[in-house]
Amino acid sequence: MKKLKSYIGLTLLGGLLVILPFVIFVLALRWLLTTFSGLIEPLSLPMREYFLLPPLASDALVVLVCLAACLIIGLLVRTAIGRWLHNTFDHWMVRLAPGYKTIRGMIQQLLGGEGARGPLNGEVVLARIFGPEVPTTMTGILTSRHADGTVTVYVPTAPVPTSGLTYHLPPAAVEYLTDVSVEEAMRTIIACGAGTAEMLAGATRTALAGPARGLKKEG
Fold first, then answer.
1. Residue 129 in contact with residue 173, Cβ under 8 Å?
2. Could you check whether the bond before residue 159 is cis, i.e. omega within 30 degrees of 0?
3. Are 128 and 169 in contact (CB under 8 A)?
4. Angstrom distance (rounded) from CA 169 to CA 125
5. Using one digit for the tens of pLDDT, what is the confidence trace for 90-126?
6. Residue in 218, 219, 217, 177 with CA at minimum distance from that of residue 201
7. What's the rounded Cα separation, in Å, for the pair 114 and 104?
8. Which CATH class, in words, describes the domain spanning 117-218?
9. Tens digit of pLDDT for each residue in 126-179?
């Protein structure tokens, strides 16, 4: 009887492991599409009524227009006139809109804009947060290097990597993981550590004795 219960339980668990990722993906995609559709409705609704388009077609057209606008703006700010317009716009927004500077800085840090380093484009490391002599390590993202030689490491928490803790550590307490992408590291964190063995097996550990790749010193 125990073997039968164990067999049924393991079989049920195996089925859940197959179905749950798909169900969660569908639910997340549905939520994302519903939220996005609500955001673009002020633009898609007039287009839908004027061109007599179905809702999906009007939403897709608005998305294409927004992407084209982003591309044009991105090309424009690469020119001298575009940079001047951007700087002027930023200047007046900072003066007239409270909180704009903070939001802009957060987005630049997160996405790595204008040379900034952030969690999405940092370097994957193993951080010894309890000291170089303690063997306990945590998967982290190196986001900043300071003039005194210390580094800043963001350690995401499982299974939600958007929350975590920031540590300021000496270089001796950090090992850089060569050939490990941020995306790969985030997958192991979301999976509560599953897949870490494969990630570490394909990585070369390098001590941070010198400047990390692509990181600028801050002082």
1. yes
2. yes
3. yes
4. 12
5. 888 888 888 888 887 777 666 655 555 566 677 899 9
6. 177
7. 11
8. mainly beta
9. 999 999 899 999 999 998 888 888 999 999 998 888 788 999 999 999 999 988
